[in-house]
Design goal:
The chain has 213 residues and is an alpha/beta fold. It contains 7 helices and 6 strands. The protein has a 6-stranded mixed β-sheet, with helices on both faces. It comes from Aspergillus pseudotamarii. This is Histidine phosphatase superfamily.
Length: 213
């Protein structure tokens, strides 16, 4: 076993609430924010001081879920000044375009870098590290690895690399991954994680391949 991975499915989005996939890059619903906050309280009770990294899809609802659920873990500089989050030196939220939802429905299609930076100024440097075409799912301008099996491999390789880095630091060793149902099915096909919930796995290497078990 290489390390522990907590797969989090984003909390309720407006597209879930309204059953409307045409909402562009859907944000959390008001109830979704409550669900995300509750998720964070429950997670901390079980895994206090265990987390060394949080990696999120760059879609709005996953960023919002991450910031809402984990203010006790994340560094407070990533929050808006009027957010009410107290000073806290913690983990820096990382964004990974490979964690975005699989389909190209409007609700699952991300926003341009400039728009995300405007909404999440505390994450400016991380957002600007994204490829400018990160949200394009296919075609010659898409930076996403194709086929999906290659995307799965790149995600697992990043998790392995992150776990290796964490072993050299005096902080938590677990990784939280905040993502979507399609990506969860790609990484852990037997998982059944409702919105606003998580499931814990171990990253293992077998016969030269990486798996979540």
């Amino acid at each position: 076993m290489l390390g522990r991975i907590h797969l989090v499915r984003h909390a309720e989005g407006l597209h879930n609430l309204r059953n409307d996939p045409t909402i562009p890059d859907a944000s959390l619903s008001e109830r979704g924010y409550d669900f995300a906050e509750d998720l964070g309280h429950r997670f901390i009770r079980e895994y206090s001081n265990c987390v060394g990294a949080i990696i999120s899809s760059p879609l709005r609802r996953t960023i919002q879920t991450s910031l809402t659920a984990f203010p006790r873990i994340l560094d407070s500089t990533q929050y808006a000044k009027n957010s009410g989050v107290g000073a806290n030196k913690g983990v820096m939220l990382a964004l990974d375009a490979n964690l975005q939802e699989i389909t190209d429905l409007p609700c699952n299609t991300g926003s341009k870098v400039v728009d995300l930076t405007e909404q999440f100024p505390g994450l400016k440097s991380e957002i600007e590290n994204l490829n400018k075409n990160w949200h394009k799912k296919a075609g010659p301008d898409s930076p996403l690895p194709q086929p999906l099996s290659k995307r799965r491999t790149e995600i697992l390789n990043r998790l392995q690399s992150t776990l290796t880095d964490l072993k050299n630091k005096s902080m938590g060793k677990d990784i939280i991954v905040v993502t979507h149902q399609g990506v969860i099915a790609l990484l852990a096909p037997t998982a059944n994680i409702p919105v606003g919930q998580w499931q814990t796995f171990h990253l293992v290497a077998e016969n030269g391949e990486l798996f979540l078990k």
